[in-house]
C-alpha cells in the first residue's frame, strides 16, 4: 500500500475546510515518515506513551492529536507537546490537563467528546452534561486549556441513515454551542467538529464535520498484537 499516494488522494478529495488527521496508532515511524514526506503534518494516536515515543523520534513541526480515551494519570506524558486532545469527557480530566499544561507553560486545546452512538462501549458526555460544564464558573478558572469544539464517534454500522442521524445530532449540538454567547463569547474559539473515520468520513463531512480521523484508508489495516 502506497501511503504517500493515499495522503495525496485525501488532500485532493477532501474539501478545503476539512482537516485530515492521519490516525497512525500501532504504525511504525517509517510509515509515518512516508506520510510526513507527502506533506501530512497532523497525526492521531490513541495511546499516550506510543505517541510520546514517536514525538521523540520525529520532526518537531508535527501536530500530535490524542484521539483515544485518556487516563488522567498519563496526561503528564503528553502535556509537553500534544496539540489537540479529542476525547475529553469529564471536568476532572480537563482539570488534570490544565494542571499539566501549566507545568509546561503551555495552553492545550481540547474537544469535548459527546456520546452519539447507540453502543454502550463508546465514551462521551450527554449534551446537558457538556453544556453545564461549558457554562460553569469552574471551567473559566482553567487558564491553560481551551475548549475549541466537539468530537463524536458514530455507531459501528453500515446503515448510512443511522450514521447520518448520529452525525446530524452532533452537528446540531455543535451549532447550538457555537452560537451560545457564554460558550463561544468574544473569543470565537469554538470551531472544530471532529467526526468521521475511514469507514464513514464522507457521510460525516456531508453532515458538517470539519475534521476527520482516517487511519486504515491511509496506512492499511492494523496488526493488533
From TrEMBL:
<dbReference type="InterPro" id="IPR001608">
    <property type="entry name" value="Ala_racemase_N"/>
</dbReference>
<feature type="domain" description="Alanine racemase N-terminal">
    <location>
        <begin position="3"/>
        <end position="222"/>
    </location>
</feature>
<keyword id="KW-0663">Pyridoxal phosphate</keyword>
<dbReference type="InterPro" id="IPR029066">
    <property type="entry name" value="PLP-binding_barrel"/>
</dbReference>
<dbReference type="InterPro" id="IPR011078">
    <property type="entry name" value="PyrdxlP_homeostasis"/>
</dbReference>
<feature type="modified residue" description="N6-(pyridoxal phosphate)lysine">
    <location>
        <position position="25"/>
    </location>
</feature>
<dbReference type="Pfam" id="PF01168">
    <property type="entry name" value="Ala_racemase_N"/>
</dbReference>
<comment type="similarity">
    <text>Belongs to the pyridoxal phosphate-binding protein YggS/PROSC family.</text>
</comment>
<protein>
    <recommendedName>
        <fullName>Pyridoxal phosphate homeostasis protein</fullName>
    </recommendedName>
</protein>
<comment type="function">
    <text>Pyridoxal 5'-phosphate (PLP)-binding protein, which is involved in PLP homeostasis.</text>
</comment>
Amino acid at each position: 500500500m502506497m501511503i504517500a499516494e493515499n495522503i495525496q488522494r485525501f488532500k485532493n478529495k477532501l474539501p478545503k475546510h476539512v482537516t485530515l488527521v492521519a490516525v497512525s496508532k500501532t504504525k511504525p515511524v517509517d510509515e509515518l515518515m512516508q506520510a510526513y514526506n507527502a506533506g501530512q503534518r497532523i497525526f492521531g494516536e490513541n495511546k499516550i506513551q506510543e505517541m510520546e515515543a514517536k514525538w521523540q523520534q520525529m520532526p518537531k513541526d508535527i501536530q500530535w492529536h490524542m484521539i483515544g480515551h485518556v487516563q488522567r494519570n498519563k496526561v503528564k506524558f503528553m502535556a509537553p507537546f500534544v496539540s489537540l486532545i479529542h476525547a475529553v469527557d469529564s471536568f476532572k480530566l480537563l482539570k488534570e490537563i490544565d494542571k499539566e499544561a501549566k507545568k509546561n507553560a503551555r495552553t492545550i486545546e481540547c474537544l469535548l467528546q459527546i456520546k452519539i452512538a447507540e453502543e454502550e462501549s463508546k465514551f462521551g458526555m450527554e449534551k446537558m452534561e457538556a453544556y453545564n460544564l461549558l457554562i460553569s464558573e469552574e471551567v473559566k478558572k482553567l487558564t491553560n486549556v481551551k475548549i475549541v469544539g466537539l468530537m463524536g464517534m458514530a455507531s459501528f454500522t453500515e446503515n448510512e441513515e443511522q450514521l447520518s442521524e448520529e452525525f446530524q445530532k452532533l452537528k446540531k449540538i455543535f451549532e447550538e454551542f457555537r452560537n451560545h454567547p457564554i460558550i463561544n463569547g468574544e473569543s470565537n474559539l469554538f470551531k472544530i467538529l471532529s467526526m468521521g473515520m475511514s469507514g464513514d468520513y464522507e457521510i460525516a463531512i456531508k453532515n458538517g464535520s470539519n475534521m476527520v480521523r482516517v487511519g486504515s484508508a491511509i496506512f492499511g489495516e492494523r496488526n493488533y498484537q
